[in-house]
Structure formats: structure tokens, C-alpha cells
Amino acid sequence: MAPLSDEGRDKLLAAINYDSIAAGPRLPPVYVQACILWYAALSPLDKMVVTGCKATYARGYCQQAEIAAEALPAAPKWPL
Predict the structure, then answer these.
(1) CB 3.0–4.6 Å: which of 23, 36, 51, 76 could bond 2 by disulfide?
(2) Using alpha carbons only, what angle is made at residue 37 by residues 31 and 39, rounded to the nearest 5 degrees?
(3) Which residues contact 53 (CB under 8 A, 6 or more apart)?
């Protein structure tokens, strides 16, 4: 399993990449799998935070999405 991180950036990137289809082939499979497992273990409230972070990021508000992601539990560390 990938190491976990409490950094907002790593949490945001895990939130964005937990969906292996969206992540694409450029990411290490072990990282994508760790993100999938991380997301599956989240509470319903945390999953709503993930949805909000993804929507905020998609609208171009990267810094705000990262700040919101800081509320999430430790996530797999970004490998790249």
C-alpha cells in the first residue's frame, strides 16, 4: 500500500484520482488502488467532501479545493 499523508495536496489528489477511469494510465496502479481503498473506507460525510473538492477543483479553484481537502483523513501520498 502507498504511504499515507496528511498534506492537503495529497488528499486532494487522492480525491481526484480515486476513480481509476478518470486517473488514466499514467499513474502507478498501486497508487490508484490505494486511492480506491482510501475512498471506500471514507464515511458518507467525507465522501461528500470529496465530491465538493472535485467540483471545486474542476471549476478552477485549486487552492480552495486543497483547503477543503485538508478536512479529509490521511490519504495515499502523491507518487509523481
Answers:
(1) 76
(2) 100
(3) 12, 15, 16, 65, 68, 69, 72
